[in-house]
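ok trying again, last paste got cut off:
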Amino acid sequence: MVIKVDIDLIMTVLSHNLYRLLAINLPGYTHNTSATLFGKFLCNSGKIEITSEEIIIRMKKKRNLPALLTEMEKFKNITIPWMSNKKLIFVCASTT
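nice, full thing came through this time. structure:
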């Protein structure tokens, strides 16, 4: 039996659920829509610097960035095994 799957529907449901997970972990943002969460947190520029021991993600200053950085604190000691166990660091950049 062949089951046809609509990739657009799958990606829409997946992205909606990922936005909900983000909103649940950000105090005060649980009732925001996906579009609002995208504008406040994900639509941001920055730089990624990869050194011999670290991956540093410098995000451009934004009004809601402190809430996101606070949430990312739980990942401060995480290492990426497939990148030679480099440590992942999120910081706020003064300029980009």
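cool. The CA atoms of residues 12 and 75 lie 26 Å apart. Residues 7-25 form the longest helix (19 residues).
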